[in-house]
Amino acid sequence: MYRALLLTGVAGVGKSTVANAVGGVLTSAGHVTAVVDADMLAQFGPPPNGDLPSGRFYDELKCTNLAAVWANYQAAGARYLVVAAVIDGVAQRERYAASLAGCEIRLVRLIADKETVVSRLRRRDIGSKLEKHLRALDEPSLAPNATGVADFTVTNDRAAADVAAGILVRAGWLDRAR
């Protein structure tokens, strides 16, 4: 059986950090695991003029590339995949799921208090990118699991390895937390 864990949440919540920690926990438990940051699958631009708005273009590119990367990881022996991605709707979740055909999928929404997220963003981003992420924090659609798309929500408020182990236990993929 193949399993994919999709970690979603607002920019700065810690998706990539927790994804790497989940990959480490699974690998330490003897599971052949791949970790992918979906943003890295669409470092391309500007988008060509076409039928899709730029946001949709990048979402489609991420999913198309994810399918190809996952096929390569499967061929190399991976049974588990951990993906950090912004997935804010049922249609988008279904698109990611289609990219991971044959996988048992769990989608987890990471949350953290606004002060923590703002602090992380200020350490990481600058200029218009920072301002865009800060404005997005006030959008009601980004409230914890507002879209009902996640299987469960986890607060990212402790060491990434502890958050990762808790997620895996809750998903039923590990017997106990570290």
Automatic annotation (TrEMBL):
UniProt xrefs under Pfam families: AAA_33
InterPro entries according to UniProt: P-loop_NTPase (IPR027417)
Gene3D superfamilies xrefs: P-loop containing nucleotide triphosphate hydrolases (3.40.50.300)
Name of the protein: AAA family ATPase
